[in-house]
Design brief:
Strand order of the largest sheet: 2-1-6-3-4-5
Number of helices: 25
CATH architecture of the largest domain: 4-Layer Sandwich
CATH class of the largest domain: Alpha Beta
Helix content: 25-40%
Shape: globular
CATH topology of the largest domain: Aldehyde Ferredoxin Oxidoreductase,  A, domain 1
Distance between the termini: 25 Å
CATH superfamily of the largest domain: Aldehyde ferredoxin oxidoreductase, N-terminal domain
Number of strands: 19
Largest sheet: 6 strands, mixed
């Protein structure tokens, strides 16, 4: 119950699709989605495998609460070895695709090998087949979605796939479902493209059974009341979306600006949630049209926006006059503050291209920011960029760069390498704001100390969604901690990491944890699944997942030296704001974190820790 008990194994080399039973012993240890799929990946694949070789596997996985009436129970994840980082990758997405896969009767899809020609996987309940995708290879995500639905004459089919960025091997390309929801980080789209797999289309007509329906219904109903009554999940996110953070983080002096040379952006309000709702242009209409919810979600933090038709980016492009997924906070930061651009319509257009072609806007924007710094200091010339004048604050440079990157044309092919490889190539590695090769997101570790430790220790490379200490350090959830001190942050980060791993594996959205604790989540999982799923068990599952991922990375060749931050954050103090004069205190926090984790001074889990977690 909760689990369907079925896994679809697809051998792209042989062109076969075969069902198999879910490993229930592993499911009891890892729950589902991120945890369970990572266990499959670790057991079935050598961590030293080249991410873009046919030997890399990728797993589309749901959680036991995916497709149920639990609020936000629409999540799924893509687990593989990431080409951007070389580390274990798990990219989480919302929308409706994950629930549809459960309705079709599947917990996971395991993809192996490489097809000889472009194909897409079509699943209708228990029927699965690989079909020719030659007509849509080279097409955008949006065109692919429309083509598949028309071919199968089913507008209720849900599609998850790649654009031309994934086909062209852009190392931070992502997988898009439902037109603008993304499994966004670490380059999972490039892995899909390397396998000649264009899309996975799903149509399910079943449902999801739970173990104890009365208990499950009572738990989910009570949890929804908690979400509705919370200031963040009941008011802030529905009204402003994640963009509610733009002015908050800027005022806290923790908004990385112009490739983190600064911690505050004077154009923050221009690209904020408030600006999205303000009338603009001659027509006086706002950028934001509406909010939108994923499957089963009572928060509805998604944005639907439209570029002003008078804006230079779309003046002669009526195909972009429609509404699409609007700016989230991370995208607005990366496309805006990281590049110094405060043109809201330009950011929205760039975000549309990211949705259309399958590009991670965080890594893209951060990479453009690094390129802009190299251009301004003379490292990059017009000859290098093909005439593209990459000046901080240039909206035209940003929007041209995103078009070129999606097509992997001109300097876009260089940008598609990500900032680490780009900066290494031009002899300026110190200008890449990355951890383990992945660009860090919209929180400066000098102004929010816990996030520095979070980035440095994240198993998938720099990431805010592995341990969102911003919740505690800035928003005071579940309790307020001082963002400018390092004391206690090792335990705080570990607690967030373990809890988040459990939430990611359940099928729920991590945004619920602005209101919920594991005390709210455990009864929902317990009602859905057989056995006893207490708070303590969820924490144990989360800790087990974290250590499993760590082991994968150690075997892939990572060491404690990779748990680090760019020198700029460790040596160059914040110039303004509450954190003025501070650098990241990572050197103090990291040994404390290793001790809290039960790892050696070299960052390796001890035998005692492995034994306790049955690893």
């Amino acid at each position: 119950m909760g689990w369907t008990g079925k896994v679809l194994r697809v051998d792209l080399t042989k062109g076969t699709c075969a069902p198999e039973d879910l490993n229930r012993e592993w499911a009891d240890q890892y729950m589902g989605q991120r945890g369970l799929a990572s266990k499959y990946l670790a057991e079935e694949m050598d961590p030293k495998t080249d991410p873009l070789s046919p030997d890399n596997k990728m797993i589309f996985a749901t959680g036991p609460l995916t497709g149920t009436c639990a609020s936000t129970g629409g999540r799924y994840s893509v687990i593989t070895k990431g080409p951007l980082t070389g580390a274990i990758a798990c990219s989480n997405s919302g929308g409706y695709w994950g629930a549809e896969l459960k309705f079709a009767g599947w917990d996971m899809i395991i993809l192996e090998g490489k097809s000889k020609k472009p194909v897409y996987l079509c699943i209708t309940d228990d029927k699965a087949e690989l079909l020719d995708a030659s007509e849509i290879w080279g097409k955008s995500v949006w065109d692919t979605d429309a083509w598949i639905k028309t071919r199968h004459q089913d507008p209720q089919m849900h599609v998850s796939g790649i654009g031309i960025a994934g086909e062209n091997g852009v190392l931070f390309s992502c997988i898009i479902n439902d037109l603008h929801r993304a499994a966004g980080r670490s380059g999972v789209g490039a892995v899909m493209g390397s396998k000649n797999l264009k899309a996975i289309a799903v149509r399910g007509t079943g449902g999801v059974k739970v173990d104890d329906f009365p208990a499950f219904l009572a738990a989910t109903s009570a949890a929804k009341e908690v979400l509705a009554g919370n200031a963040v999940t009941g008011e802030g996110l529905p009204t402003f979306g994640t963009q509610v953070l733009m002015n908050v983080i800027n005022e806290a002096g923790a908004l990385p600006t112009r490739n983190t040379r600064d911690v505050q952006f004077d154009g923050a309000h221009d690209i904020s949630a408030e600006a999205m709702a303000e009338p603009s242009g001659k027509n006086g209409k706002p950028n934001l049209l509406a909010n939108q919810a994923c499957f089963g979600c009572t928060i509805a933090c998604g944005r639907i926006s439209k570029v002003n038709e008078e804006h230079y980016t779309v003046q002669n492009k009526p195909e972009y006059w429609h509404a699409s997924g609007g700016l989230e906070y991370e995208a607005a930061w990366a496309l805006g503050a990281a590049t110094g651009v405060n043109d809201l319509d330009a950011l929205t257009y760039a975000n549309f291209i990211c949705n259309e072609q399958g590009i991670d806007p965080i890594s893209f924007g951060a990479t453009v920011g690094a390129a802009m710094e190299m251009y301004e200091d003379g490292t990059l010339t017009d000859k290098d960029t093909g005439g593209l004048k990459l000046k901080f604050g240039s909206a035209e440079a940003l929007t041209t760069a995103v078009e070129l990157t999606g097509k992997a044309e001109g300097f876009g092919a260089e940008l598609g390498l990500g900032s680490k490889r780009l900066c290494d190539k031009y002899g300026k590695p110190e200008l890449s704001m990355t951890v383990k090769g992945q660009e860090f997101p919209a929180y400066d570790p000098r102004g929010i100390q816990g996030m520095g430790l979070t980035y440095a220790t994240s198993n998938r490379g720099a990431c805010h969604l592995r341990s969102y200490t911003v919740s505690s350090e800035i928003l005071g959830i579940p309790e307020k901690t001082d963002p400018l001190v390092t004391d206690g942050k090792a335990d705080l980060v570990k607690a967030f990491q373990d809890a988040t791993a459990a939430v990611d594996s359940s099928g729920l959205c991590v945004f619920t944890t602005f209101a919920w604790t594991l005390e709210d989540i455990a009864p929902q999982v317990d009602g859905a699944l057989p056995g006893n799923w207490s708070v303590d068990k969820l924490l144990e599952v989360g800790e087990r997942i974290w250590n499993l991922e760590r082991q994968f990375n150690l075997q892939a060749g990572f060491t404690a030296k990779d748990d680090n931050l760019p020198k700029r954050l460790l040596k160059d103090a914040a110039k303004t704001g509450p954190a003025k004069g501070l650098v990241s205190g990572l050197k103090k926090m990291l040994p404390e974190y290793y001790a809290a984790r039960g790892w050696t001074k070299e960052g390796v889990p001890t035998n005692e820790t492995l034994s306790r977690l049955a690893l």
